[in-house]
Design a protein that fits this description.
single chain, alpha/beta, Rossmann fold, Helicase, Ruva Protein, domain 3, 4 domains, five-stranded parallel β-sheet
Length: 463
């Protein structure tokens, strides 16, 4: 079987009949080699379009010198390996040819045959290694691209990178979950640009940003005259994403009636514009994202179960920034350098106190909030270092400060549990694990809260 790493085409440029036969014989010892013999440099140049891997040439050809031919070969393709054979043992010429790109200079003496064979084997090994490196580079290309757009070395982000690698190898639907600001659209774009659909268009649509009465026309488009005001034909987002990627952001906000239409479209892989009757083929990679727990939304009757399983595909959960440790500093540096470069500033890093302040904050707005705070710090800083007082957090979300008021230990405990429940979308099991308490303790606190609220309502009704 022919090896994909071995050179398949070799030129022998030699006007001495004896050496022609000897060199050709050595080259053809490998049956995979396709060997061409040329008596002049001109003939060799005319046939370079055949793209040889290795060329063996005589230094003293009848129509040009070995130096001239070597330059012509390297000008055509610098990766062609060239072995120069010469009747003269001239060190100066050998050094010059090697400087100009020759792989070896072999004197035509009793050892020429053995040296030629060894050089050929060495060149094969080198080309083999280059091919392997090229394949390895291609395999790592996706990860390199991800690391350019998604920054992080934390354990949780390494898990995300592993899932991203799996996502780009097929066209499986991907569902991305995570709090607002964790970078769901950045991840979706990274999957698209590293996937089989990267030559197509990335089309994003945010379900929460479009009124439900307009969503159908945005997704499916409409024909001219379909309704009052439809003066021209409109191409919908699904149709625009054909052969590309459709990113449905905040899918959990989609109206239940619209969900049924989307399900049919995904199942049939075709759409029909509003006011039309002609099915239009729809072939796009689908990526969805939400900050909601879709399984919980299904149990509440807010999301169709059949659509849920159709969209679940490969689930990727993005961790909140507060759980990513030193990734906060990596991201902050990236945002600082990016903002400074864009605005002609010389800010280069954060002081130790600034880093401590960045790490101590909880980031309710996640990566989006970090970027805003870092950009503000670059403006506020004096000199080329950002200090702690230059960093300001202006989150509209309330953060819990246990020292602002005096209360009983029981109330402190309750506030801590309530704070963690709000932070983790009321996931009792997760909060119990993080606080190292039993889930029954949490349920008991919630029941007490419910009971107190009920009594308070009854008292208000009496008055």
């Amino acid at each position: 079987m022919k090896s994909k790493f071995e050179p398949s085409r070799i030129f022998v440029v030699e006007n001495d009949p004896n050496y022609q036969r000897m060199v050709k014989y050595i080259m053809e010892m490998n049956p995979d080699h396709e060997v061409y013999v040329f008596p002049t440099g001109t003939e060799c140049i005319k046939n370079l379009y055949l793209k040889p891997s290795i060329i063996s040439l005589e230094h003293s050809l009848p129509d040009m010198s070995g130096n001239e031919l070597l330059k012509e070969i390297k000008a055509f393709d610098k990766d062609i390996s060239v072995i120069v054979l010469s009747a003269q043992n001239d060190i100066a010429i050998a050094v010059q040819l090697l400087k100009e790109g020759a792989s070896d200079y072999i004197t035509k003496d009793k050892d020429a045959k053995e040296r030629l064979m060894n050089t050929l084997l060495l060149l094969k090994d080198n080309r083999h290694l280059k091919k392997e490196l090229a394949l390895l580079k291609k395999e790592l290309e996706t990860q390199y691209e991800f690391s350019k757009t998604i920054i992080g070395n934390s354990k949780s982000m390494k898990t995300v990178f592993t899932l991203l690698e799996k996502a780009v190898k097929t066209n499986i639907t991907v569902s991305i979950t995570g709090e607002t600001g964790t970078g769901k659209e950045v991840v979706a774009k990274s999957i698209h640009h590293n996937s089989l659909h990267k030559k197509g268009t990335f089309v994003a649509i945010n379900m929460s940003a479009i009124p439900k009465e307009l969503l159908e026309s945005e997704l499916f488009g409409y024909e001219k005259g379909a309704f009052t005001g439809a003066n021209t034909k409109k191409i919908g987002k699904l149709e625009l994403a054909h052969h590309g990627t459709l990113f449905l952001d905040e899918i959990g906000e989609m109206d239940i009636n619209m969900q049924a239409k989307l399900l049919r479209c995904i199942q049939e892989r075709e759409i029909v514009r509003i006011g039309g009757n002609k099915p239009i083929k729809f072939n796009a990679r689908i990526i969805v994202a939400t900050h909601r727990d879709l399984a919980e939304e299904v149990s509440k009757g807010n999301f169709r179960e059949d659509l849920y399983y159709r969209l679940l595909g490969l689930p990727i959960k993005l961790p909140p920034l507060r759980e990513r440790g030193n990734d906060i500093i990596l991201l902050a540096r990236h945002f600082l350098m990016e903002f400074s470069r864009r605005n002609g500033l010389s800010k280069v890093n954060f002081t130790r106190k600034a880093k401590d302040k960045l790490l101590a904050y909880s980031y309710p707005g996640n990566v989006r909030e970090l970027r805003a705070s870092v950009e503000l710090s670059a403006v506020m800083a004096i000199g080329n270092m950002v200090d702690a007082e230059d960093i300001r957090f202006n989150s509209p979300k309330r953060t819990l400060n246990f020292l602002t008021e005096e209360m009983t230990l029981k109330k402190y405990n309750y506030k801590i549990v309530r704070h963690f429940l709000e932070r983790h979308n009321n996931d009792v099991l997760l909060v119990a694990k993080k606080l190292d308490i039993g889930k029954s303790t949490i349920y008991r606190m919630l029941n007490v809260e419910k009971s107190l609220t009920s009594k308070k309502d009854q008292t208000s009704n009496i008055h």
